[in-house]
Amino acid sequence: MHLWTVPALSLVTLVPTAIGGVLFGLALAAPPGPMNAVIAEESAVRGWRAGFTAGLGAMTADACFFVLAVLGAATVVTNTPGLRRVMIAGGGLLMLWFAYGAVREANALSTAESDVDEESQGFRKALVLALTNPYQVAFWLTVGIGLLETGSVDVLSYLPVVGADLVGLLVVQTGHPVLLAGFFGGIVVWITGFPAAIVAARRRVERLAPIVAWASALVLASSGILFLFEAL
User: Fold this and answer.
1) What single-letter DSSP state applies at residue 171?
2) What three-state secondary structure class fits 89?
3) pLDDT of 150 over the 70 cut
4) Residue 158 contacts by C-beta under 8 Å, 6 or more apart in sequence?
5) pLDDT tens digits, residue range 163-185?
6) Which of 7, 11, 154, 193 sees the fewest Cβ atoms within 10 Å?
7) What single DSSP character describes residue 99?
8) Is 25 helix (H, G, I), strand (E, B) or coil?
9) Are 49 and 118 contacting, i.e. CB atoms less than 8 angstroms apart?
């Protein structure tokens, strides 16, 4: 079990730590992948609220993994190769199934049919995908545990070329609730802004919804195949 001790935090490091948490959250949430494919599809097909709800599903999984990391239970996944393989295979199959659903929605939108299900299942899809993703568990066992450990990180000092000139500008205090609040705040910023950007683009480009649905299907299918190959 991971014992989480909360260090004292001075006003000098309060704001940088919060900003650092937001940056960490954005770094986790923003890269392209299955979760953002689901968010993009839901946003393009059903609107901002559906996309945001899908994002909440992914963030809920992160909250679960955070609790498991604190308790030390998440190490079971990495220490049990068979369980990890089952998770990878299960996640791959789910991605292929959701890709099939995205293809059906893309076809319906492309042919102006009216059989697109208006009820969003984005929260459930993103939550299940995230919970069956061993790489998300690995994140919380590496970077996540690092965020819980008491210490500090000079974030900008690691930048190439200019790092030496930026020493001390963004010192992040790890192991503090402010950092974790900023981290989940960064995720909220992404799952709020990304669906809004998709919806805004859809309003300007009439045919964007089926394009996004096809792209989401491609990302999900590719990720699913890669997961299945790794499981085998």
Assistant:
1) E
2) helix
3) yes
4) none
5) 567 676 666 777 778 888 888 99
6) 11
7) H
8) helix
9) no
Least confident of 34-38, 65-69, 109-113, 177-181: 109-113
Q: How far apart are CA 98 and CA 38, in angstroms?
A: 8
pLDDT digits (tens, 9 = 90+) for 187-204: 999 999 999 999 888 877
CA distance 109 to 141: 41
CB 55 within 8 A of CB 189: no
CA distance 51 to 205: 18
Contacts for 78 with CB less than 8 Å, ≥ 6 apart = 84, 134, 137, 138, 141
3-state secondary structure of 172: strand
For the record, the structure tokens of 53 come out as: 């709800």
Alpha helix segments (H runs only) across 111-171:
122-131, 134-148
Rama region for 151: left / alpha / beta (φ>0; ψ in -120 to 50; rest)? left
SS3 of 120, please?
Answer: coil
Query: Could you tell me the pTM of the whole model?
Result: 0.76
Q: Is residue 172 within 8 Å of 15, Cβ to Cβ?
A: no
Q: Can you tell me the distance from the alpha carbon of 57 to that of 214, in angstroms, rounded to the nearest whole number?
A: 22
